[in-house]
């Protein structure tokens, strides 16, 4: 099929991983810049709006996690069928997945808009900060359809072996957001001064452009989307297969923001400056780990295709390359943070206390980024193997089993620094455990299939 069926079961493994990852890297960079630009310009408005964004981060991650879960399930399903499937089957898979995403949007937008103040009050927001949050999220929720549908659509295109198009779309969306942010926040020229609402509106517009383009690509170029679905039974069957991966994957993705909500609650007891610092550090952390995140997305595709052909030597080779790269990248990021941590923090705020807390976060949790990368790569690989439950298990252990309990204990014993050490310990221990168990799982699958 034209534009489909890029065969990843033969050829040089390292070269294929690189060629698939670098477009994804640009896309991830675009999304990280998306968040960093918002943080930068809102920081110009003061600590209040910056703290408000810190409070919204876990909730936004929660909703993004739902979309990503459906996208991961779709990517895993299509990558394991794309080499041999006919166009009719691919249309059913892709169209049913988009329909599933649309139904989820309706449900969560309605729930989100009606619970803004109660939810964020529960997370510890109050006074002016709660007003800022309401202004931002009341607009942001309206843009959820423009977040979910492109995310699922991008995963469909990515699963066919084309990571360039989704990557460039993500970059384009970030560029649009970067241009609109200052115009709508500060009201330059003919644009109204909307403050924190302007940041949310810029996000909505940028995402909507991305949605329109990806739908055009799926309909016109790939000819993989149709409104004429075969039958309700076949749609439900696709949903079942998507949910087999998407359910545990979404649960794993949602556990992280839920645990971050608890961490935010703990941090909020140290004041708005601490919440603002953790918000800044979290966004920089996304930037630091974007290469690993891009590689993780590629591993789902690569392993999905190779497991369908029982190409286990290629799978083991890809795991070795990925794990070594993660540890090396984590070491490089730590060095950069050690030398430039204070400067990076000062880019987003001039508040001395926020800078000091952010820098400390970089030094402590930054030491564990290579191992956090192992967790990310392992969870992606499990989904490519069509074994999503270990992925969810290790995410749960890392966040709710280790990070949150140790953060509560660390806060009592060491203050805010204890919360940071809890994150470091969770990353290192679970990173090692998840990767070792992954290698055992692949060997077990190989032995069950009787492959030599």
> Which range best describes the helical content: under 10%, 10-25%, 25-40%, 40-55%, 55-70% or over 70%?
over 70%
Low-confidence stretches: 1-5
Q: Enumerate how many helices there are, as a single number.
A: 16
The tally of structural domains comes to 1
N-to-C terminal Cα separation, in Å?
Answer: 32 Å
Helix-strand category = mainly alpha
Q: Calculate Rg over CA atoms.
A: 21 Å
Shape: globular
Q: What is the element string, with H for helices and E for strands?
A: HHHHHHHHHHHHHHHH
The average pLDDT score comes to 86
Largest sheet, in brief, is: none
Oligomeric state of the chains present here: single chain
Total E-strand runs: 0
Strand content: under 5%
In short:
The protein is an all-alpha fold and 452 residues long. It has helices at 13-43, 47-79, 87-113, 116-122, 127-140, 145-159, 164-186, 196-221, 232-268, 272-288, 290-308, 312-348, 352-365, 369-384, 389-414, 416-448.
Architecture blueprint of SSEs:
Layout: H1 13-43, H2 47-79, H3 87-113, H4 116-122, H5 127-140, H6 145-159, H7 164-186, H8 196-221, H9 232-268, H10 272-288, H11 290-308, H12 312-348, H13 352-365, H14 369-384, H15 389-414, H16 416-448
Helix pairs in contact: 1-7, 1-10, 1-11, 1-12, 2-3, 2-5, 2-6, 2-9, 2-10, 2-11, 3-6, 3-9, 4-5, 5-8, 6-7, 6-8, 7-8, 9-15, 10-12, 10-13, 11-12, 11-14, 12-13, 12-14, 12-16, 13-16, 14-15, 14-16, 15-16
How would you describe this protein?
This protein is an all-alpha fold and 452 residues long. It has one domain. Helix content is 83%, strand content 0%. The protein has helices at 13-43, 47-79, 87-113, 116-122, 127-140, 145-159, 164-186, 196-221, 232-268, 272-288, 290-308, 312-348, 352-365, 369-384, 389-414, 416-448. Helix 6 runs antiparallel to helix 7. The longest helix is centred in the middle third of the chain and has 37 residues, at 232-268. The model is unreliable at 1-5 (pLDDT under 50).
